[in-house]
Amino acid sequence: xxxxxxxxxxxxxxxxxxxxxxSWRVLVAPYIADFDLLEKYDFDQPYDSSGNQELWDQSxxxxxxxxxxxxxxxxxxxxxxxxxxxxxxxxxxxxxLDDYPPKTVLLIASGGDTGVSWIEPYDMESDEGIxxxxxxxxxxxxxxxxxxxxxxxxxxxxxxxxxxxxxxxLI
Length: 171
Hints:
Helix content: 10-25%
Number of helices: 6
Strand content: 5-15%
Oligomer: single chain
């Protein structure tokens, strides 16, 4: 995506009236796999248009986790952009991913029932929300379903399971 467009995808593709139009997950999906589902998605319409809503419950396998969601996870995505102060999403969108320092967070996979469809342009957004989610208030991260920790993808192409403590340290 970055090579073709000269930038990372926006976390939310915003239209002229500042309304979220598409999720980054929809924008990068053609670069991950070739599948028929995207042929049905209308990029001229917002994610919540009647035509695109037909895809709401049909998440591609690469945005799901059978360990987290079971064999039929529906359209919910466990993959979220980790939009916090030490992530690529707050940096220069034209900066190549390999120019970021090691362990710069790109994506996190939450566990179980996320409530976010793969076509919805909603993710983990703010520093305040992330800090709340990591236990600095009463809000907690989604249930950790992987014994190893939370799956995290980094800008350098590596991935690792991180404990809540390790994740907190990175952000």
